[in-house]
Design goal:
By secondary structure, the chain is α/β, with parallel strands linked by helices. The protein has nine helices and eight strands. The protein has an eight-stranded mixed beta sheet with strand order 3-2-1-4-5-6-7-8, sandwiched between helices. Helix 2 links the parallel strand 2 and strand 3.
């Protein structure tokens, strides 16, 4: 199992920290000494997860704060509260929603997956840059997915209004995440910022993300999906590429990390190649511009 390096003195935000990969990531960072802000939509579930983590790491420093990535007002309020604290060393964009069966919208009218998985994290990241850049070694880690490999940015129908299909819409949102992380790395390099932007994917990790998304908008929940013969893993293993990208001294600027076995489905973390879907050198900047247009949030002109 990957051992997280000492994180004493670092303060990190983990979105979606009440379950699955987010909870595992928050737990292991806190166990390594980090002060972790658990950003969650549901305070009760967040506090329950916090109590569970404290049973494993009694001395952990954990704080639960409300964040709904499908509501930009919530994103701004959360970012303001973190900025008011005056210190942040890391952000892990983990929370998301996956393949709701019908087209749903965020508060701003974005297609739910594009809004929750990309627009919300984009706004959060850019809003937190001024406070992150006060840290001597800040990091932003954005969680993508293997589905980004066959994703496509539908510039002519970003919001899936002309035809919604759950899986392609999800793949588009996770490809957008990958491209966002790549362009943030370029920005940091061009501006000579100390910020490290990394991206990770968890391979095929079994979490409640798949079930929760499939049940959105349904009157009765679906039965749990049958197990398949495809290799899969649980959150302790699936979180390891995220943890490596977010905490390891060997992580590189703009690098992508994922499992190293069975074609990236499972296994110990390793640096993986950028998929063909993300190799167009113009794509990262185009997607970044989309993020700015959708959210109205732009890069800071100066930092202190």
């Amino acid at each position: 199992m990957y051992r997280v390096p000492d994180q004493t003195g670092r303060r990190v935000v983990v979105t979606g920290a009440n379950s699955g990969l987010g909870r595992e990531t928050a737990s292991r960072l806190a166990g390594a000494g980090a002060s972790v802000v658990m950003a969650v939509r549901d305070a009760g579930k967040g506090e329950a997860a916090r109590r569970d983590i404290l049973t494993l790491h009694p001395d952990a420093h954990l704080e639960v704060r409300i964040l709904d990535l499908a509501d930009l007002a919530s994103v701004h309020a959360f970012a303001d509260s973190i900025a008011a604290d005056g210190r942040l060393d890391g952000l892990i964009n983990n929370a998301g929603v996956m393949i709701p069966p019908s087209r749903l919208e965020t508060t701003e009218g974005f297609e739910l997956q594009l809004g929750t998985n990309f627009a919300g994290p984009f706004a959060l990241t850019v809003r937190l840059l001024p406070v992150l850049l006060q840290s001597p070694a800040p990091r932003v880690t954005t969680v993508s997915s293997m589905t980004a490999n066959w994703g496509r940015i539908r510039f002519d129908d970003l919001q899936s209004r002309e035809g919604y299909r759950p899986s392609p819409a999800y793949s588009q949102s996770k490809l957008a995440d990958l491209l966002m992380g790549l362009h943030l790395a370029t920005i940091a390099t061009d501006r000579d910022w100390p910020l490290l932007s990394t991206i990770a994917h968890p391979g095929y990790t079994r979490t409640n993300l798949q079930t929760a998304g499939r049940n959105l908008g349904r009157d009765e929940p679906l039965r749990p999906a049958r197990r398949t013969l495809v290799p899969s893993q649980l959150p302790p293993q699936g979180a390891e590429p995220i943890l490596f990208a977010a905490a390891d001294p060997a992580a590189d600027q703009g690098a992508y990390y994922g499992p190293s076995q069975w074609g990236g489905l499972v296994g110990p973390p390793a640096r993986v190649g950028i998929p063909r879907s993300a190799r167009d050198p113009q794509l990262p900047a185009r997607v970044w511009a989309i993020g700015e247009s959708l959210t109205g949030v732009t890069l800071p002109t100066a930092t202190t």
